[in-house]
Amino acid sequence: MAFPLSDLPNEIILAIAKELHSEGAINALARTSRHLYSLLNPFLYQYHEHPKIPALHWAAQGGYASTLISLLDAGVDLYASSIWFPDQTHTLTHHPLMTAIWNGHLNIVELLLDRGAMSERLKEEDYELPLNRAIWHGHIPILQFFLQRGVNPWHTRKMDPALVAAVRRGCPEMLKLLLRDAEHRQLLDPSQRLQELGHALWVAGHHGNDELIHLLLAEGADVNFRWDGTTSLDSAVINDHYSTAKILLQAGADPKMLDCDDIGPLARATKPSEAIWLRQGTRRYMNPRHPSHLVVPYPQVVRDELVAMTRLLLDYGADAAGPDGATALRIAMRTKNPELTNLLLVHGARVLGINRTTHGASEENNYWV
User: Fold this and answer.
1) Which residues in 157-175 are b (16+ Cβ under 10 Å) and which e?
2) Half-sphere exposure for 307 (CA within 13 Å, toward CB)
3) What pLDDT does 52 receive?
4) DSSP single-letter state for residue 290
5) How many Cα neighbours within 13 Å face the side chain of 214?
6) Judging by DSSP bridges, how do beta strands 283-288 and 275-280 pair with one another?
7) Which one in 86, 88, 166, 362 has a CA-CA gap of 20 to 30 Å to 343?
8) In residue terms, where are the ANK repeats (predicted)?
9) CA 327 to CA 235: how far, in whole Å?
10) What is the pLDDT of residues 28-65, one digit of tens each?
């Protein structure tokens, strides 16, 4: 005589479930009656103790707190070998914690750290990737949460400094939050602060983010700070950011500053950048120029850009008669740019025999000869 499956003793039903080797099969069995659902639902969560734990990522992606709580209560392994990599550069690269941060779910981040007790196991360096990704994806509440938990955003070892990451994101609110937190907790001494601000200013110049340039200068960034041998003015000029270069010059950027190979803003203004910067939301991204814009002789529209930038630098005191001007003139002639050549000559530029053997004739140096 047939009788309902749900009439079987619970022990037998659980024994049957344990012999089912797929999540879908267990789920199908659980849907046959309310009794089986209530009995097997906890077992279904326990199923995800096994390495792939797809439900954990699903809960983190969707922000499903109740699902995550059920998984944690069922003993899901937050340190399974498929999501926890202590021997790699970043332990948490493939962890559901990163999935939650990517999707901006602060509630899931809190549950994993507190109810899941991850905060007891994570080391200081483990927070570097989560904090960086919170900045990169623009999730201010998650960044605030980490800062309030005492995470030090300035102890970066493997990624961009926090302030630079905020500049790349294009988020003034994050810059202010990081700087105010550093002041409140006294995390930076004066020299460290200048270093962080200077690096961030250079990156803002590279991206052509005028709003962040103003903000960083107001915070005390040194407009002539060198990063990797070049200034924020160099960074703006070489990327064809005219308005950014003008702001920096108005703030006191020195157009006569040269690098160790006697290359300065004038020489950097004589060639078009290989990409133009576009804006999407708060971010700026590079888009390759049309190939025809990089072929000598350059189109008139490109020559006009180069002349405008060079004229701006000369108006603010760039030294056309020095080695930077000589390199600029040499490039202007070789790229068959008569307007630029004449402008430099009028301001005293002359072709000089430039000896670059002091620092070695690298491919990068030859770019400017």
Assistant:
1) eebbbbbbbbbbbbbbebb
2) 17
3) 40
4) P
5) 5
6) antiparallel
7) 362
8) 228-260, 324-356
9) 18
10) 666 667 766 666 666 555 554 444 468 899 899 999 99
